[in-house]
Amino acid sequence: MTTAVNPGALVPFPRKGIREVMSETWKLTHQQEWISLFRFLISESINQWNYLIPRSTTKFYCPICDRQSEAFIHLSNQTRFSWNSVCPHCSSRGRHRALFFIYQGYLRELPLNAKVLHVAPEPAFYRILRGGPFTYHTSDFYLDDVDFPREDIQRLSFKSETYDLILCNHVLEHVPDDQVALRELFRVLQPGGVLLLTVPGDFERPETKYFGHLNYNGHYRDYGRDFLSRFRQVFPGGDVADMASAHPQRNIGVRKGEWLFIGKK
Ligand SMILES: [Zn+2]
């Protein structure tokens, strides 16, 4: 597998035709995922309506591909709707569009000869990460087109105190023991280094939802507000920022309450 399968792959998001809609409907029915099916039918109906009736307004801006859109594509799963989530031109999600601005602030502050590690890298960020005045490494467990393939985040091969900045989006929900993974990220950070981490969840909800098994999209859990205290057990003084305020002047389609976890060593 390559990074082309990652969200944020920098490729146009494929529109679902009637065949894909029928196939997804059948799959969710077969799996008896009734809530997911209900949400899918609503969000995809609105997408189809938007494809059919194009409007001339340019309401949303995507900084990843520097294009405007009448609407972003709505997604849903068993836990929530994600309205105006995906840029149709480059597949970026809200978190990518917000982090595009946030990352640049942190990159400017890096010390000389800094090393940056990007776990499960999204090509959406390559424009700002490749060719900068720092060493940039990518790693993943499944993907082959990275600098360090087959890296298990629960048991990283890197020496302690290697990286000045670690970027990691939507990985921990796929990992059996996320606390061990956090400790590994802490271990490989340099003193003074920073981890910028996102995980899927509803941070208005007090508790993390544990599925007890891998759910249909490969997640062990959907995070709640309690994750902050578990994050702080590994990163004392760890903090969060609401990514919706990453670019207050333009509508980049970021859901309010999408948290960025910031850990410093
Ligand atoms: Zn885009």
The ordered H/E elements are: HHEEEEHEHEEHEEEHEE
List low-confidence stretches.
none
Overall shape:
globular
Separation, N- and C-terminal Cα atoms: 33 Å
**Helix proportion of residues, in percent?**
25-40%
Number of helices: 6
Strand content: 15-25%
Could you write a compact summary of the structure shown?
By secondary structure, the protein is α/β, with parallel strands linked by helices. It contains 6 helices and 12 strands. Helix 1 runs antiparallel to helix 2.
Tell me about this structure.
This protein is α/β, with parallel strands linked by helices and 265 residues long. It folds into two domains: 84 residues, no CATH class; 170 residues, 3-Layer(aba) Sandwich (Rossmann fold), CATH 3.40.50.150. The protein is 26% helix and 22% strand. It has six helices and twelve strands. Strands 6-5-7-8-12-11 form a six-stranded mixed sheet, sandwiched between helices. A two-stranded antiparallel sheet has the order 1-2. A two-stranded antiparallel ribbon has the order 3-4. Helix 4 links the parallel strand 5 and strand 6. The two termini are 33 Å apart. Bound molecules: zinc ion. The site of zinc ion has 8 residues, from loops.
